[in-house]
Amino acid sequence: DLFVCDEAPGAAENLAMQENIEQLAAALDSLPPRCRDILIYCKLEGHSYREAALRFGIAEKTVAEHVYRGAQRLGDELGRRGFRSCRP
After folding, report:
1. How far apart are CA 71 and CA 56, in angstroms?
2. Which is nearest to 52 in space by CA: 74, 37, 69, 73?
């Protein structure tokens, strides 16, 4: 006899994941465009602040400010949407 365990997520888990992705996308859309673009470029696409500074034509320190403020705003917006904070 073989015991087969299907570890693939079920319909409910897939639906919940899709809803979370939609909420994240909406929260990202609530950010100012330049801030959103820099946050996505650095944090989701994995580029360095130096690469972002060159791409967007701004100082690395300005990139860091956009990322910091964008992450703060994103966390606040997700909190308003009912997500728990992962900040300490």
Report:
1. 18
2. 37
Supply the Cα-derived Rg of the chain in whole angstroms.
18
Amino acid at 73: R
pTM, rounded to two decimals: 0.76
> Strand ranges (DSSP E) for the chain?
none
Q: Record the tokens describing residue 52, joined without a space.
A: 């972002």
* Predicted confidence (pLDDT) per residue in 6-31, tens digit: 677 777 787 878 888 898 899 999 99
Encoded amino acid at 34, one letter: R
For residue 6, the SS3 value is coil
Task: Assign 59 to helix, strand or coil.
Answer: coil
d(CA 52, CA 39): 9
Return d(Cα 85, Cα 50) in angstroms, integer: 29
Residue whose pair of structure tokens reads 């992450």 in the numeric block: 71
